[in-house]
Amino acid sequence: MLSPAALSAAAAAAVWLLALLGPGLSLPAEHDSEAGFTLCDDCFYRQTPPRGASAELPLHHHCHRLPGGQALATLSRPTCDTAVCSAFHLSHGWTGKEKEQRGETVTEVGDSVKVAVPALLRGGAGDLPDAASPTDSPLQQWDSTVAAIIQSSIMPKCAALGGGVYILTGAGRLGAAEDGDEECQTKLLWSAVCCAPPEGKDGFSVGVIKDTQAERQVSMKELEEMLGVAELFSEGCGGEDRETAAATVGLHSDGLHGNAAKTEADETDENSETGDPHAKEGKKESFKVSLPEERFGADAKSENADVSHLSEETTAELVTSVSSSEQQFSETVTEEESNSTSTLVFLLSTTLSILKAPLCPVFSIITEFPEQVTHVFQEDLEVLSALPGDTFTLFHLLMSDLLSWTGSAADMLLGIGETCFSSVCYCASSMVEALLSSCQTGFMGIGTLAGDTVGIFGGVLDNGWWVTKFFGGRLWEQTENYMGAVVSEMGGQAQAVGRGLGRLACRADVSVSFIEMATLYVSPHPDDFRSLLALIAAEFCPSPRPRIISEDPPASLNVRSRPALVLAAAAGDGDSVLSGASAVAWYLAFQGKRAGMDSKQQSQVWQWLSFADNELTPVSCAVVFPLMGVMGVDKKLQQSSRAELMRVLKVLDQTLAPRTYLVGESLTLADMAVAAAVLLPFKYALEPSDRKAVTNVTRWFTTCINQPQFLKALGEIALCEKVGPVTPTPKGANVTASVDSNNSTENGPPKTEAQLKKEAKKREKLEKFQQKKEMEAKKKTQPPAEKKAKPEKKELGVITYNIPTPPGEKKDVIGALPDSYSPQYVEAAWYPWWEKQGFFKPEHGRKSISEPNPHGIFMMCIPPPNVTGSLHLGHALTNAIQDCLTRWHRMRGETTLWNPGCDHAGIATQVVVEKKLKRERGLTRHDLGRENFIQEVWKWKNEKGDRIYHQLKKLGSSLDWDRACFTMDQKLSYAVQEAFIQMHDEGVIYRSKRLVNWSCTLNSAISDIEVDKKELTCRTLLPVPGYKEKVEFGVLVSFAYKVEGSDEEVIVATTRIETMLGDTAVAVHPADPRYQHLKGKTVLHPFCERKMPIVFDDFVDMNFGTGAVKITPAHDHNDYEVGERHNLAFINILDENGLLINVPPPFLGMKRFEARTAVLQALKDRGQFKEIKDNPMVVPVCSRSKDIVEPLLKPQWYVNCTDMGKQAADAVREGRLKIIPDHHLKTWFNWMDNIR
Fold first, then answer.
1. pLDDT for position 1124
2. Kind of pairing between the strands at 1031-1033 and 71-76
3. Where are the alpha helices (DSSP H) in 694-799?
4. Strand 1035-1043 to strand 1049-1054: parallel, antiparallel, or no bridges (unpaired)?
5. What are the pLDDT digits (tens) for 129-178?
6. Per the record, where are the segments of Polar residues compositional bias (predicted)?
7. Nearest to 1032 by CA among 1185, 1184, 1177
8. How far apart, in Å, do the first and last CA atoms of the chain sit?
9. Do 761 and 594 touch, CB atoms closer than 8 A?
């Protein structure tokens, strides 16, 4: 037995330690704002808090994360110091193992708001919650009572249904206070419980309250009225069916009696301490009145025998359990010393568990770390063990080459030494980098598992490694360009050890001898950009550079264009000649290591060469050559060429935005070729205003032309300041001849007779143009002739009707008419008079509309225009025809009505209003909520809808405006509902789950007419909403499925590779002989354990591709029908937002087009990727959001048109309806006979 002094000291120490660790034990409010409250959405049924709770008095929302991961949401008033309501969710299979350790039951969050941790989240695993203490508040006592009810009665019932439980517990009203300033008083203690089973099963909900009368059960409707809310559980939870009634009786018989007894005992103890015997009697009487049998009569009658038997057994067990709890509680109250000891043990155990919890992962990782390091070193030692043999072989081959190459010993010795050193550095650097990367991964893993305790240590290691890697990388990048090129080239040779080394040395020897004797023939014209490109590339060649000659090549070389490079071969093999700017520049740049560091960069350089030749050069010549006098001036052609040049330069400007050079981090042949192509426009055509529009291109071009090699080849380049004619050079015709000859010889065989005739016509036109220019010059030198004065035309202006006429009064037609016709004069003042006289009403000229009219009745409803916009020319045409019909029937004496109105255009209006909210207030419809967003739509309709009516009146349409309708009006909505219900009862309208056109941006299904078909001929990048980078379309990806039980594989192809995650079969044609032996076989999915059958179906085209087709029934219209025929599984892999579901990691949760890249890479890693090639295709695009439309399985409403289509077809066949012209009959019958 501990002394009181020891107990006090131990308690003080424990309290001090808990205060020190308080931040770890408290219940932090992760987000006090509405924006962050979404972290606790799962605490509420359907992720929706009680609706209407903050309509009159705002409530503050708090989200708490308990150390075990459980979430708790609370609502509180700004003026109260305690939470008004708490909410949490217990999922199916919850056994209490997730609950928190026993500790504090009350904490403070936010603005000193006290929050009680629910008893169900504090109890031990599998036990009933703690009994309420006499010192607990009424809310805590009520929480213990409700916890016992839920765990003993509701949880077993809900677990049998396989559902989760949503619990709301609170004190007082959630809506506006009834007593003015008494909003913080807790007159009413209440709890609402919702059992939410999986789809297809009925749940139930239970409400329990404790007010001034007693504990009792109420319906959800009563509880919502008491609390002042519209809905506690979104759209209701469960229904009043037989199972709900059974659950209700089970609750009263099992839970509420036992807990009411416990509450009575607690209150009796309190009253005994105060010495008020009357209070005891009052409490007992109150308890007896609170559980009358009549209250359960209606529910008990609907209860079946099984549930009643279960409830009686549960009641007996619970009464026994509660009685023992009362006895134990009484003993605890009487033994104060034992209570103090248990409190101290509780505090010390809690402290030790808190100190031990974060250290356990650390100890586990420290013990596992040596094993991880050993594993890393084992992998690296395998690489190191192979290094000596490769190095020895490399040295052996190098030394043998040194002995054999006696003719060029000095040059070859230097080259081989550089090659050897770079190869060793490359292998060693790769090995060290892999080792350091593995060590970094190990240390970062330790830091991650250690959590916040060792987070700083892991961060220091991570940052230290990053700094080391950064400075090491920078140091490596500063090495000489030549050494980098050698390392890149020899890295590939080292893989085959000595296999390619001899060929490389031989090629280097031959190339050196070629360069030594090379001769470069170029054009002498200073603006021949093709020759300038070759000169720039020659400046980058290693010494000695080719000899430059500006004369024509000898006739013996048979070279018809410049630039041309003559390479003298050894031993009389004959000279090698390269002609054409691209070929010569590539050869020279390759010798100077400017054609790309590796095969990828070389491919990119070739692409930019093609871009310069095919895109930039034609438009540059079309813009500059007229200024240089090479070709005639055509203003229209020159303007279009200039616009095209700016378009191409803007594309180039976007590419250069994040880059210094086009390929890699140094200047390459790509920069030389593109710079040469835009050289003349920058010199003669692009003014400063034009260069501002392409700042990135200007910056890049200036960088290039200021390189020493460019300056040596081009000299100083002066950029254009103002566009004007260029002074012709003495040899100005050479550029034309050079370009023409290049086009004729470089790109193909000599020109045909037709091409020569075409060129002759061009020259003839050019001569005529020159003669015209000479005539204009002569006219300028002659004195101008006097022009005869022309008589001035009389400006008539716009004639308007200016006679004052009050609205509704008849127009004055006595005055003289204007000299010319004026619509403004003729149409003025008539329409208000027509409306006032009631000419457009069916009642006009009749005593009553119900009076029979012997002439008949004509009634027509206007096709309602969309409220989203204004009327266009099509509306003017159709409304004019309808107005003519209406006036004609009215003139015949018929009772005539033309009814006006406009359509709400649901999706279009939603898009317009959403854009307006985003632009003006930065909000979305989700931020406002459904009700507020509908109010914004109505507000927008009232502002914009009258514009359409005003336009119809301007057209003079004879509409009865007193009968104007809007499709969202109450009477029209009721009519729609009535018609919908009738057609549904008749089977015309039905609901079915089929593939629909789904827009992930709009989160809505759209009709076929709202889908644009975008045709692609090859690989194309398209912008998609929600993605920063453009997405690739127009390609066909081929990959293989492995046949189960064999090494055979089936190759399939698709344009949407991400949908292979939802494949459930592979289809082939029944007559295809290649796959007859696979009948009854299955293939294996590479990313999951799914076995997919090989089905035989006639829809497969066995002449297309491999003749095998992947089947994705849930995401393709053709595959859907195949899945129906063969009873395949329908696996939906996309949710409404375009995120992947029902797929294995790591693809789960990815965006659909990000998963496209990930799936392709995963197939490559597994070796099942085959090829990718261009493929013409049609991409469905949403006409409103421009999103890519996805086929998605969704339940939708459909109209059964089979009978209607038959009637329409029979009407034409029987002659009752005639289609004009007759050739449309085939289309008519095709639609009507095949409609669904």
1. 92
2. unpaired
3. 695-705, 708-714, 733-741, 753-781
4. antiparallel
5. 555 566 667 777 788 888 888 888 888 888 877 788 888 888 877 776 55
6. 735-747
7. 1177
8. 88
9. no
